[in-house]
Amino acid sequence: MNFHPIDSLVQLLFLPLLTFFYSIFPNYGVAILLVTLLIKIIFFPLNQKQFKSIKISQKLQPEVKKIQEKYKDDPKTMQQEMMKLWKENNANPFAGCLPTLIQLPFFFAIFATMKSPAFETLLNTTGANKGLLPFFLPNLALHDNTFILPIAIGVLTFWSQKLFITDKKQAAMFMFMPFLMVFISWKMPAGVVLYWAFSQLLTTLQQLYIMKKHDDSTEPQTITVK
User: Fold this and answer.
1) Residue 143 bridge partners (DSSP)
2) Counting Cβ atoms within 10 Å, is residue 115 exposed (0-12), middle (13-18) or buried (19+)?
3) pLDDT band at 223; cut points 50, 70, 90
4) Contact criterion met (CB below 8 Å) for 37 and 197
5) What is the C-alpha separation between 31 and 24, in angstroms, rounded?
6) 122 CB contacts (<8 Å, ≥6 apart)?
7) 13 by DSSP, 3-state: which?
8) Do 190 and 149 meet the contact criterion of CB atoms below 8 Å apart?
9) What is the rounded distance in angstroms from the CA atom of residue 152 to the CA atom of residue 65?
10) Cα-based angle 175, 56, 222 (whole degrees, multiple of 5)
């Protein structure tokens, strides 16, 4: 028997949750928002650790640059000193990627859910409220013809990057990302884009919260590179 993680998430998580929330509030748009909120709450501790790690890494950048400059002709020693720096400051340069990778299947699963015959059946049930509002996202299986949500995703992506990418070179490298997000989401089913936009909004608010709360407590005790 083959195991398909995305199909399992669709059948065992997203469809039951959407049906459950719809039974409480008969609106599939609201159901998607509630599912998104629930997932963000579940992943809050993981995202919190991710953002704190990114913040520490940012504050270590001056020391990183000193090490790179001092040992530019000795890659082995440079690597050892870098590892020592991360260890003494309880930082992990790769910790920022893990939560994103873990949550990626959930995005693919919500996309698969919106395109699944089972969800279309739910939407086409007699009397079903298949959209968010009559004048905005009236059918979650179709794309957002107002294009408000794709643009919102681009704006939120830009805002999120501004919060954490302080290095000018990195900022230049990622300046295309907001436009890419708009392009990708432009013709996606409205249900997917609603999930994505609300999830991005919650993520950005979480970034602001963590930056404010942990600004002093996450200050690393950096070592001096002699």
Assistant:
1) 189
2) middle
3) very low
4) no
5) 9
6) 15, 18, 19, 22, 28, 128
7) helix
8) yes
9) 35
10) 130
173-197 residue pLDDT tens: 678 888 999 999 998 889 999 999 9
Q: Which two tokens stand for residue 92?
A: 């992990």
- The amino acid present at 20, given as its one-letter code, is F
**pLDDT digits 0-9 by tens, 209-220:** 777 765 555 444
Whether the full predicted model's pTM is greater than 0.85, yes or no, is no
The answer to whether 130 and 123 are in contact (CB under 8 A) is: yes
CA distance 17 to 14: 5
8 A C-beta contact, residue 102 and residue 6: no
Q: Are 122 and 114 in contact (CB under 8 A)?
A: no
User: Whole-angstrom Cα distance, residue 207 to residue 220?
Assistant: 18
> Torsion angle of alpha carbons 48, 192, 182, 163, nearest 10°?
-10
> Which amino acid appears at position 5 of this protein?
P
Sign of the C-alpha dihedral computed for residues 101, 160, 43 and 93 taken in this order: positive
